[in-house]
Amino acid sequence: MIQYKLVLFKIQFGANIRVPVGGYMLGIELRRNSGVSLARQIYRTLRNQMTEGRLKQGDVLPSTRELAKHLTVSRNTVYEAYEMLSAEGFIESRPGSQTRVANGLLLAKADPPAEHFEEAVQATISYLVDFQTGQPDLRYFPQSSWLQYLRKAAESLPQEQWGYSGAEGIPALRREIAGWVYRSKGMTVHPQNIFITSGATQALHLLAELLSVYGKDILMEDPCHMGMLRVLQGKGFNILPVPVDKQGLQTDFLKNSGACAIYVTPSHQFPLGGILPATRRAALIRFARENDLFIIEDDYDSEFRYCGPPVAPLYTMDSQRVIYVGTFSKILYPALRIGFVVLPRRFHSQWCYLRRHVDVQNPPFEQAALAKYLRTRKLDRHVRKMRKLYGQRREILLQAIEEKFSRTWHPWGDASGLHLALEFPGLHFDQAFLLRCKESGIRIALVDYHSINKNLHSDKLLLGYGHLEAKEIRQGVSLLHKCLHAASRR
């Protein structure tokens, strides 16, 4: 057992403290093997004592020599700690006078953390089969060649682009995206109208700021992507829901409401999967023109269509009313965080102003690498390969569901994308059912979760399949069948 030699040290603000030499004084306990410097440990302990009231305003601190002696540290270490306290205004000292605790430092005791907080913020759950939506299969991403592109991009990037290269994005990437959307979707876009973003979510944040001067009401598909809904609600918008059916937005329900914009996913409605037909597209554009509002077109995964080529974007019908939002998260990998917006010219200067005050720009290295990836047509080939793979998995999923559930279900939105919706007429799925699925080892989602008006789609489930192998898909469907069977018996 370590024996401490005790000494009596007279603290000048009136307390007699028994101090073990070399370890403990003024409540300072030094941990010499810690990654935190001794000076910062001393600073932190004294600061906490001042804010907690154990050291009161006007109290005199020991001299640097005295404290260093009793903590068995160098005087410079204590001096550095006092310097930090002095720089932040915790102590006051003048040449030839004593060092005292400053006034006004006492803080009320902070509220204790909420009980079971760690339980509420749960660690990532390991599922036997995870039907999460919107997940590409990263196992097939050509990681090694992509890393080579990144390295070459960093080496060849002009010096001026290591600085602030502009809120619009680097010119090479904007040119290559213009070529990509023409090849893949038939969109004719000038590179000057393309603005690089950190994904579709950031794009919506900026568009909300941009359009808020025109009003605070916005029309939105119901159901819709809950994350995007919350972005708009967080910006103070009043959401006006428009119902969706198997063909997407029901334009017959559009009403003149003074809204500034309407958010739609016409090429693959999320979450129900409908493709907006030409008559509704024309009706939507007429409505936007007649009511002087803008259409935000979120084209999040239309590259993966299994019954013909990708659908032409709504943008091609009116480039002045439609603001097109694209992303590479689903066709490459989610962590890339590169998306783009095609903006009418009237918004260019305001967009740049807003982007400069958010995060200035995307990192230039990923932009340069993606530009070369597009220029060499690597992305075109990767998308064709993944479209074939995802199409095969879609067929496996539909076949497995047919085998297990016979004709008690109907698919929604199975022609494209990385997920499908399943309707089970007469059933009602709720949180209790989700919990049973979780306990059985599978994750699924409810369409009703994404609904603004609840209980209109409570008979539908969402199953993402793009990232699952055939064996996982069949196992997941089998587990889902058991959960549904148990639920029906209850």
From TrEMBL:
Q: Which family does it belong to?
A: In the C-terminal section; belongs to the class-I pyridoxal-phosphate-dependent aminotransferase family.
PANTHER family named in the record: HTH-TYPE TRANSCRIPTIONAL REGULATORY PROTEIN GABR
Q: Does the keyword Zinc apply?
A: no
List the signal peptide residues.
none
Which InterPro entries does the UniProt record give?
Answer: Aminotransferase_I/II_large, HTH_trans_reg/aminotransferase, PyrdxlP-dep_Trfase, PyrdxlP-dep_Trfase_major, Tscrpt_reg_HTH_GntR, WH-like_DNA-bd_sf, WH_DNA-bd_sf
| Residue ranges of every copy of the HTH gntR-type domain listed in the record | 36-104
Name it. Transcriptional regulator with HTH domain and aminotransferase domain
Alphabetical keyword list: Aminotransferase, DNA-binding, Pyridoxal phosphate, Transcription, Transcription regulation, Transferase
- PROSITE patterns in UniProt: HTH_GNTR (PS50949)
Could you tell me which SMART domains the record lists for this protein?
Answer: HTH_GNTR
Sorted alphabetically, which Pfam families does this protein's record hold?
Aminotran_1_2, GntR
This protein's species is Desulfoscipio gibsoniae DSM 7213
Gene Ontology terms for molecular function: DNA binding; DNA-binding transcription factor activity; pyridoxal phosphate binding; transaminase activity
